[in-house]
Amino acid sequence: xxxxxxxxxxxxxxxxxxxxxxxxxxxxxxxxxxxxxxxxxxxxxxxxxxxxxxxxxxxxxxxxxxxxxxxxxxxxxxxxxxxxxxxxxxxxxxxxxxxxxxxxxxxxxxxxxxxxxxxxxxxxxxxxxxx
Length: 131
Hints:
Blueprint: E1 20-22, H1 33-41, H2 43-46, E2 51-53, E3 81-83, H3 94-101, E4 109-111, H4 125-128
Parallel strand pairs: 1-2, 2-3, 3-4
Keywords: Receptor
Organism: Phytophthora palmivora
Protein name: Toll-like receptor 2 type-1-like
C-alpha cells in the first residue's frame, strides 16, 4: 500500500561535495577502482575535486581497468594535485595515467614516485601528448 503523501523531501540539506580525497596508507588494492571511479566521475564531485591522494597503497596497473570507457569522458577541471606515489604502477600503465591526466586541465602536481617504473624503454613523449 502506498502512503498518502508520496512526495519525497530530503532531510539532508547540508551535504558537502568533497574537494579533496585523501586515502593514503589505507591498504587499498586495485579493486578499489570499482568504487572510486564512478564516485569521482559523478558531476558534482568531478567539478569540485582539487586533490586526489591515493599514495602508499597497493594499487597497480590493473587499477585503471576500472576507469571504464563510459567514465572516460569525465573531466576534472579543478584537480590540481594527483598523488599516486608508492603504489605498484609500472611503465606499462603510463598510457592510462596520461589519458587520465589529459582530462585534468588544472593539474600542476603529479607524484608517481616510488612506483615500479624504470628508465629503460621509457620515453617522456607520453607527458607531451597530454597537452
